[in-house]
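Exam prep: given the inputs below (a chain plus shikimate-3-phosphate), describe the expected output before reading on.
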Amino acid sequence: MNNIFLIGFMGTGKSTVAQALQEVTGREIIEMDQELEKLANMTINDIFAKHGEDYFRDLESKLVLEISKQDEKIVSCGGGAVLREENRKYMKESGKIVLLTATPKTVYERIKDFNDRPLLAGNMNEEYIASLMEKRRDLYEAAKDVTVATDGKTARAIGEEILDKIRA
Ligand code: S3P
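Solution:
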């Protein structure tokens, strides 16, 4: 299995970098959040509001399992897709896991004008982003095969760096 999983905190550029990787490799992208919205037939905000986070995580885990049976995909993961151990295991078994990072300041600048992230609703500020990032740091680190910092880089440059690192 030869998938590329892009993991990392919200706003670390997973979707944009997936597109850059697609341009270089011609591979198909799976955008997890979009797939979850299709499966649930509602927005991510509505899934959290109507059914709660556990329901969202259950759907997310089912999707990770399905994706892990595929091959040669570029997978833009939701920021919390690595929270469950089973998800990390399925990802590891089916490809390379690339952790994208960015500082809380960069993340804030990238996502501050969007309101489609229920976990940050009412907490859209650098301090909260930094604290949630810190809580998740060990999980991201445990899951990843390689890390690429994204601050101040173009998506194309990040894509090239990823390919260099996973081929090395
Ligand atoms: C989440 C990240 C979001 C989305 C959901 C939960 C998280 O995806 O899956 O709002 O737990 O970090 P992005 O990382 O694409 O924003």
